[in-house]
Amino acid sequence: MKFNIKSCLSIMAVSCAAFVLSSCVSYKKVPYFQNADQTNLSASRGIHDARIMPKDVLSISVTTPDREISSQFNQLVYNTMQAGGSRSISSGSGSMMPYTVGTDGNINFPIIGKISVQGLTRRECEDKIAGLVKPYLSSDINPVVVVEFQSYTVTVLGEVSRPGAFNVNSEKYSILQALGAAGDMTIYGMRDNVLLIREDAKGEKTTHRLDLNDANVINSPYFYLQQNDVVYVQPNKAKAKNSDIGSSTSLWFSATSILISLTSLMYNILKK
Predict the structure, then answer these.
(1) 4: exposed, middle or buried (C-beta count within 10 Å: 0-12, 13-18, 19+)?
(2) Would you tell me how many other CB atoms lie within 10 Å of the CB of residue 60?
(3) CA dihedral (240, 241, 244, 250) positive or negative
(4) Tell me, what DSSP letter sits at residue 144?
(5) Element (H or E) spanning 231, and its range?
(6) What is the pLDDT of residue 18?
(7) Cα Rg of the chain, angstroms
């Protein structure tokens, strides 16, 4: 009985090559916006404005020529420190107190009371508050109101380099910026089937699928993210296959190495 060690080694080499090739990712699934040169992006024109939702945190300041009047509408928070015993003193000029939008969509504003701000853009909210403050001022005074989002959170999970929750300080924040903050997708991320989970002002969740291989995604109403959006990048088949094999890969190669050694040993013994 004869063993051909060269044939055995050839078989093993072919098996290893097949294993490696089976885990390769198709290049055509990797680039973003593959049809960008043929896509009409006119539908994406216009500036995106975030709308205020319950649990948003806002910074609101009112400015008039009279600082004393202005101070009545501006709540300040001061840093405090213990001065001995139960006494405490305030330090610094103070910072604007944040306003958290309630589940009813209202904020509680000084002097005026409850103001419904849910669904408004930042500019619409500024105009509304200015109109409510105006009756408390002289007829020749026009208050300047500035409303800002302090921050909101977008979460990116799945096949990205740095998954996590990211604080956003901009009203205009696209899915590309979110992926950039997460270190971009790994080579195993499914660019043509990115899942977006969105929660509306009533707490209801909806899901949306985005194909980032297609440049038309820029025209999508979901291209820009909003408060509390969750982006999930699904692993492709190659990653799933590697995951199934992962725990047994080292064992497979160890067994292969042992088999080659035994084959070589038997060949040498029988050769004698």
Answers:
(1) exposed
(2) 23
(3) negative
(4) E
(5) strand 230-233
(6) 47
(7) 31
Question: What is d(CA 108, CA 99) in angstroms, rounded to the nearest whole number?
Answer: 8
Strands 230-233 and 164-168: unpaired
Q: Where are the alpha helices (DSSP H) in the chain?
A: 5-22, 67-73, 122-133, 175-181, 237-271
Structure confidence by residue, pLDDT tens digits, 208-267: 999 999 999 999 999 999 999 999 999 988 766 666 555 555 555 566 667 676 666 666
Of 263 and 19, the structure prediction assigns the larger pLDDT to 263
Residue 113 — φ and ψ, nearest 5°? 100, -145
pLDDT of residue 7: 54
CB-based contacts of 86, cutoff 8 Å, min separation 6:
none
CB 146 within 8 A of CB 61: yes
**pTM of the full structure:** 0.70
Residue 109 CA to residue 112 CA, distance in Å, equals 6
Measured CA to CA, the distance from residue 232 to residue 156 in angstroms comes to: 6
Please state the separation of Cα 248 from the chain's center in Å: 34
Please state at what angle helix 5-22 crosses helix 237-271, rounded to 10 degrees: 170
Cα 11 to Cα 91: distance, rounded to the nearest angstrom: 78
Q: Are 35 and 215 in contact (CB under 8 A)?
A: yes
Q: Cα–Cα distance between 255 and 70 in angstroms, integer?
A: 79
In whole angstroms, give the CA distance from residue 105 to residue 122.
14
Which among 252, 244, 204 has a CA at the least distance from the CA of 15? 252
